[in-house]
Structures are given as structure tokens and as C-alpha cells.
Amino acid sequence: MALIMEEGKFVSREEVARIDTPCSTATWRPVPHIDVIESVTQAVNSHGWNIEGEKYGLASDGLKLFGVMEISSSSSPDWQRCIGIRNSHDKSLAVGLTAGIVVCVCSNLAFGGTTVIKRRHTTGIDLAALIDRAVASLEDDFLTVETVSEDLKDAYLENDDEARSCIVRAAELGVINSCDILPVFHEFKSPSHEDFAEPTRWSLMNAFTEIMKKYSPRRVDHSYLALNRAFGLDGRPAALFAA
Question: If both were cysteines, with which of 89, 111, 137, 235 could 100 make a disulfide (CB 3.0 to 4.6 Å apart)?
Fold first, then answer.
């Protein structure tokens, strides 16, 4: 299971529980990181799924939480369903959940559209109920990510020039930094894992996620949003291959 933490540190669920939550104000009520994790756990279990692995990271001295839960139920032996989690105590990130897959051969992640938990910063908010509804909505997102991924495996790039063009376009869309255009191309041409030797869109996407492993959590969060838009993992036409 992959969780990228160039900045910050990996922590256990118990360590997350020890993080202090800032005091609320009249207009802002931060959500404790552990409350988010436990609410997601409860919602996952109530939907008949099992958590088969989990990994968490804290950044900005504990103000930002990033996590990945691997869950049971997948339509392919090539990947494992997962839920991405994010939260912050500094107003930089809203509580968010993301449906995704862990590509088993390389532990690369691919995420679909992020579900941001819409909530007012009041003491009466029922976070557990909001997360339960959000987790329920992820089922459709899982199916979208998996269907698109299967299609990507069957779609071949015509030649190296098309691959180069796609990579440059992806940099324009914010998927990667411009300095990583060549590293992504080299990863596509000489992949770290032989399973991606075929010049398909699936292999190209995994070249991006392989290079993105070095990014900071905040940059990765932005990159995945751009990646799912580029490859159509959000259910809309792929921006990268639009005519």
C-alpha cells in the first residue's frame, strides 16, 4: 500500500489519536483527525466492507492528516480498492474522502473524484452521519475508476510522439511538475515493472503515479485531482485524450 510522505512522518492510528486538536472559535470547529478515521472505519464496516490495511501520515507538525485504507471487494486481481482520507487543523484542507485503487504490482495509487465533506463549523454537526453518506457514495466512484482502468489497459498509444504529447499536456494540466516530463517519459519507455511494458494508456498512467511518489503530500493531493481529470477517472471524458 502506497502513501507518499516526503514531508512529515508515517504514524499509527494510536499516534494520530494523541494529536491535539486546536480550540474551536465562534466560526470554526476543527475536526479531530482520529474522529475522521474512526467515522470512516464505522461507515466502512456498516457497508459490509473489511479494512485489510491502513496507513497514515501527518504533515505540518500534525496539522494535516493523510491516509489510505485498503478495503475488501474488487473486480480485478490487478488492484485493490482503497479509500483516501485527508483532514487538516489549519483550514488548508476540508475533510475529504476519495475512492481509489492500489495497483498491486507496484503499490501505485490511482484516485477518482474526491468527496469533500460539506459541513458547517458548528458544535451540533453529525460528522459520523456525513461520512456514512459519503462512504455510501464511493461505491459508484469505485466502479467508475475500475471501468476506466480496464479501458485504459486496452487502449494503445500510436507512437512515442503521442506519449510525449500526452505527458506535456499532463504537465499543463498540473498532473506533474514540468521538470518531470522527461522522467515520466523514461519511466513509460523503460518501466520499473514489466507489467507495464505494453505502450498503453494504463502504462502511461502508471508512469505518472510512479514519478509522483516523490511529491509532498500536498502536491500529491493536487496531482491526483489533476490525474483523474486527465485520464477520466472522475467519470468525465479524459482531458488528456480529448479530440
Answer: 111
